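Following the same procedure, sequence and fold were stored together, as reproduced here.

>
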Amino acid sequence: MLPDSYLKRLERVKPYAELWRDDHKFVEHRIGLYATFYFDHFHPMVDSNEAARKALIECWQDYWNLVGTQHQKWIYRFGGSVRGYKLPTDKVPPLDAYLSDPEKHGRYQYYVHGGKHEDDASEYLFYTAGFPVYGAPEFPKRLAYLELQAPLAYITNGKLSAFVELVKRCAIRLKVDQAHGGLGLLRTYNEETTTRNTEYQLSQVFSGVDVDVPDIQMSDIFRDEAGHLGIDSPHWLNILGARWLEKLGGINALKAQLPEDVFVVEACGDGAFIQAGPYPEPGHKDDGLPPAYVWLNRVLLPVRAPTMVYCMGDNPGQLGERHGAKAYFTRFDAASAKLPPIGGSDTQALVATLSASASNESKRNNVPANQPCPEAGWWFTPAQANSRRYFKQGEVMPSVGGDYGATFWQWSPDQSAPTL
């Protein structure tokens, strides 16, 4: 049985567990389980990528054995444009035949999901992509990635441990540079402005529900000229390749810094697997930052990538370079800096310190449209310019429409009445 205290925290994600695009044609986001794996991808004249292709096929079989092949509903064909086909179809070959094609040794994309609509964000997804390597032989490789998704219900129906074991097996097969997973904001492939805006909005509500966009973030963890730059910020599940484990002093050094009654730290292939707490934490604003994630952030900081962005462009209200990305990527840093020294610390010190830190932060939650105002005062929404207005407690806070995405009302730092 899951603790009641955890179930109450998990309950907070339910209002956001299925978010439709404004025209209600398809589901734009879900909240569920996910894992992302990054692994080496070479230019074909350097390496045929045969080991990685074989590993992907094994991961494919393993994944669908867990979640059920009945959830294979749609497959995309990539070329000059992207087109979805209802499964079964002969328009795209099975994965093993697809990856055996010599033309796919240097570039491939294979995307299968379980949504009802072609463009749905689905809780069932197998997506792998490896893009052309330019600059060989001087720069012989880049990173490819694999994304897996599973239902939120796995946390409460007894399948969570099976998902975790799947993640470990796939990481070992792929000989990952790094991998991570936990609770994630699962997105549609049909990305638009509303997709990015909603991700920004929810990043302000949940610190533990990850925004994860591998095709964008990949360039911040590896670049042709610079090579390997660093890892992503902490997650519930974290897998470090041998390169990063060595830089952190080895697995025994990790164990010495991560209290064993909070963290699972074990070998994973040539690297290390770290699980931050028994369950993936949503990190709702009213609950504060997940203490284990804050603790882990301090330990992994020496190998973290310098920067991270989650979308192209740099529009306000999105997780772009000069606006929301840095604050989101470094969201655990301030609390990590306030932690007690690692030597001799225990779980109680960890939780007590984080609880005290959280109590000093604002507890006012962003409020989705069509919900009652929780506190009388001045509120605004990034979905509309000059939107600051006064709401009485209990007054329904409206949707402003438009193409921004879901409307969320935020407490205004300026609580003064407008001057005439």
In short: The longest helix spans residues 50-67. The chain has twelve helices and 19 strands. The longest strand covers residues 27-42. Residues 276 and 292 are 6 Å apart (CA to CA).
